[in-house]
Amino acid sequence: MSVALPSTAAADGHRAMSLAALLATYMQAVNISLPNAALPHIQGTLSMANDEVGWVFSSYIAASAVSMSVTSWLAGRYGRKSVYQFSLAVFALGLVLDTLATSSVQFALARIVQGAASGPLAPLSLAILLEVQPPARHARLSLAWTVCSLLGISSGASIGGWFSEYFGWRSIFYVSLPVTAFIFLAMAFWLREKRAERRQPFDFFGLATFSFGMIGLQVLLDRSERLEWFESREIWIEAVVSVLGFYLFVVHVMTRKEHFLRTALFRDRNLVLSIVISFAVGLVLLPTLALTSPMLEELLNYPVDTTGYMTIPRGVGLVGGVLLMSLVPAQIDYRPFLIGGMALVVYANWLMLGYSPAMDWRAVAEAGFLQGAGLGIVIPALAKAAFGTLDPKLRPEGGALINLSRLYGSTIGIAVVQIFFYGNTQAMHVALAKDLTPYRTAAHVAGSIAKPGLAALNGMVTHQAAVVAIIGQFEILMFAMLVVSPLVLFLRKPRPAS
């Protein structure tokens, strides 16, 4: 019996779609951290306050998480190709709006547009990859998809730092436009439309209440330091929106059998524990970048492009850890690797507590590499933990839930470290300034030092306070990983593969 071989045109189309899908996965991930090293240039142009820096990341991630939740329903209702093409078009619009922004609010809104469009790209790209390639290649394609996603997050700072230093910060968004155009054309030419045969209902009320809860909490954390917490009416409104959203969501889940997060997912102990640990991984993954770049640029006076280069070892460790885990046979217990990876992350954050103005690049490279390697081991080990006992029918939703947990961990983590950073900076400034005179009051300094000298002295104190405060935030990230580490002991062994 003869076997029909695919035509050359079909094979070329499959290769082009596979390349476009991997590029889309990388592009949506790299745009999370792309502005990281370029923040000094962006802040200077847009007059962005220090406490608004977190918006650059949280606006993109939060919008992406919301749109990712509804991707499956959209693809089934309107067609996978239509949703994919529309997302790419809106993503390109977001890139253009980023470059046209003239204020921090406009830039945050542009990032929301860009992030909302990025949400469907990664899950649909994986679905396309698994459809156009034979099953024998699915394991390698899933690995390539994971590597592209993590490589995008870890390489964004170095790419953005280089482009912003030599071509201006707006170039970091222009460079994604031709890539978006290529993906759009490749999918327009070769991808076939696909809709669900039967339209599935979607729990919009559940998604809306959960999203209101998370967004209200996010905005509250982002704005609270500037507005003196609950001294502001705005903070009270955001707190009420968040609490009400979460309350309605919990009531909705408890009183309905079907909702966008199926109850069966939470009956699996390994999945629930993996979600909690994944949240802690998110607390470390992006907040570390959000802390390291400002520390290197503003406190240690490294150039923007050099700051970007110093994040490369972390990316190498991250991708290396993922590739290493791909070589581990499926029948070997994943839990020792999970414990080892978490120990590496904790040790790396402990090394970060030794950062000082007198250090050179080696300390940052070493700690970053070890942390990246630990995260690269933990992320695939968590997937094995969750899927090892989960019903195969629930794995797509379980994987999406783990990704959402990591995304929300990152966006909440960025807001939390920003709050503690500015609060600790003020506290350390007071602690250092009160010891500048024999009388232990900073007010007496004005009588003996001229105004220029007083300003220089205050600048030195502020600088030292900021260094101490930012190093203290690495301690918070270290304890976040330490707190969830004992949960590994409660994970069950995976079921034998059938």
Overview of the structural elements:
The chain is mostly helical. It folds into 3 domains: 10-192, MFS general substrate transporter like domains (Growth Hormone, Chain: A, Up-down Bundle); 203-259; 268-498, Growth Hormone, Chain: A, CATH 1.20.1250. It has 20 helices and no strands. α1 (8-33) runs antiparallel to α7. It is globular. The two termini are 30 Å apart. Its main location: membrane. The chain crosses the membrane at residues 53-76, 83-102, 108-130, 142-163, 169-190, 202-221, 233-250, 271-291, 311-330, 337-356, 368-387, 407-423, 466-491. One of its GO terms (cellular component) is plasma membrane.
Tags for this model:
single chain, 498 residues, mainly alpha, Growth Hormone, Chain: A, 3 domains, 75% helix, 0% strand, globular, disordered N terminus
Secondary structure elements and pairings:
Layout: H1 8-33, H2 39-46, H3 54-69, H4 71-78, H5 80-100, H6 104-118, H7 121-132, H8 138-167, H9 171-174, H10 176-190, H11 204-224, H12 233-255, H13 269-299, H14 304-309, H15 312-326, H16 335-352, H17 361-387, H18 395-433, H19 445-448, H20 451-484
Helix pairs in contact: 1-7, 1-8, 1-10, 3-6, 3-11, 3-18, 4-5, 5-6, 5-10, 7-8, 8-15, 11-12, 11-18, 13-17, 13-18, 13-20, 15-17, 16-17, 16-20, 18-20
Main location: membrane
GO molecular function, one term: transmembrane transporter activity
GO cellular component, one term: plasma membrane
